[in-house]
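Comment on this:
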Amino acid sequence: MIDDTKNYFPIDEINGFKVRPGFYTMNGATTFNKSVSFTIHSSNAVSCELVLFKRQRKEPFAIIPIPDCYRIGDTWSILVFDLNIYEVEYCFRLDGPYIPEKGLIFNKHQNILDPYARAVTGQSVWGKKIGDNDCYHGRICSDQYDWGNFVKPELPLSDLIIYELHVRGFTQHESSNVRHRGTFAGITEKIPYLKKLGVNAVELMPVFEFDEFDGSREISGHELMNYWGYNTTCFFAPNTSYSASIEYNHEGDELKRLIKKLNENNIEVILDVVFNHTAEGDEKGPAFSFKAIDNSVFYMLTPDGHYFNFSGCGNTVNCNHPVVQKFILECLRYWVIEYRVDGFRFDLASILGRNEDGSPMLNPPLLKNLAYDPILSKVKLIAEAWDAGGLYQVGSFPSWNRWSEWNGKYRDDIRCFLKGDSGKAEDAAKRIMGSTDLYNPLFRGNNATVNFITCHDGFTLYDLYSYNHKHNEANGWNNADGDNGCTSWNCGAEGETDDMEVNNLRMRLVKNAFAVLMCSRGAIMFFAGDEFCNTQFGNNNAYCQDNIVSWLDWDRMKKYSEITDFTAFMIDFRKKHDIIRHDTLPCSLGFPMMSIHNSTAWNSSFADYTRTIGIMFAGKNSCGDDDIVFLAINAYWESQSVELPHLPSGLYWYVELNTNFIYSAETDYNSFTPKNGDFVTLYPRSVVVCTVRKSD
């Protein structure tokens, strides 16, 4: 850092402040002793002012016009001496043409939030509205967190068991029994639970600064908010209301401590990031940042100046404009360098591959630059490979062997097969084996697919087998919102029931889902709370529900402890068997690495009525011993006999689990499961997993 900044340029005085040109390549607010360099870019503005506020004040105490001679190209930069960063907040004002039909909407009186601000004021306490968008000011941070001798886990993606969670909803309910409910610190308190469960990655739903009051309204006496946070206000700033305490000028330290603690426990951290749209919305939305800086640069606009809406949220970020590309790259680098995050999941990532006119690009420069960036080279890049404009790229998302995908086809095919739909057996087998029809293993390896059955968007796993229809009435849209094609099944009763037969079937199907998911090739992800049958009461679009609908009810773990224990068992089982996750050395029996079987061994043919399949993984484990796993699935409503591959003398098939029985660590499933030679009986709608053992 440069300390004696006064010696490099002549000092000017403007409105009582000593100033000089700032550091043009250092975006936002950068500290140098008691001096701060402020830098902002705009290709269409004609003048710029720096506006300073006392902490938590709405009216500025100083306005400093930035001289034209301090402008180089499209960049204004000014260094202000003798500022107490702990007492100062800031924003900018830009003047320029107002021609809406050309996308130019400058307003010289508008306070503009610095898009590079490391911290944002105005919304520090969840649910406490301070003012309108004009209250968004930047805070000045020094980014001096001490990481010590920090070493990242850098786990292979195919080894990941990702636990998707909402920071607030994970611990906000009183049943979480944490001290700091609904915060980053609350997650830290739950790390022992995460370790016991066995997950090795958490995917945090949006943690960039957002406004939970965006679109807030009252329905039937309940306040609905933008709870999920997919409406970013500032991309470089952590959501201050997720901190247990107000961190003036040290915003983000609590999140950094969480990431460090998780990594120390061999748990990676993936951030769900939203670069496809912003909180500014369409023509009716506010103009507090990008719109006021360079509306026609940062957003995709129609020829008459309106907003393309491929995001379904009012606007679409113009991701492949060179200026925006640079911004996104700098943002991701910042989170990797300053927060040491391990990966990013990109919401509606297909938008990142659209041209400035909205058309899909064959080789999008943004995606390519992120794939080859040296700072990002070790982090996971996971795409939600579709958008709200109809572009669906699962299996075809531009990858450069770096990008992975949320495998939406895995979700859909496995859901349909497990509930007994006809004609889905072949598709299910392909998904379990790594979707090699979508991702050529010669080019993509084992790092292309992220398999999941549930996520934040849709039913929880419990609700998937408890409701035939969505029940989103509480959202206030007459149940018109949310996915209509949920591929769910209520097992014979809609919602909660006292029918034991229905409830037992539901538990069996939940275990089936976890068993199949954990025995699938590729990275694994499931939604927090699924391991103890958390419910959203049939709401499959709980984006606005800051209440028990979205909060995890940890008391359900008492009632559904069997499912929690079963989930932990399946995670441990997956970790013990390398061959499930990736190819190894061939086994001594000559079995292929992966093979498909139906009710007859080595018969890989399928018919529309096929509802029983077997998938075998075979190879060597890390000790050099044979590692053979056979996953047998019966999605039919009657028992089925399945033939297992014949083994030579001295070896036999051992049943490791059978979802027809109540799970217990002491249960001997091998003796409980009917067998006849190489045949094993699968009860109705059940899953059996076998391994090969040596005879005594």
Q: What stands out?
A: The chain is about 20% helix and 25% strand. The first strand starts at residue 12 and ends at 14. Residues 500-518 form the longest helix (19 residues). The chain has three domains: 5-139, 163-206+244-424+442-509+521-565, 578-694.
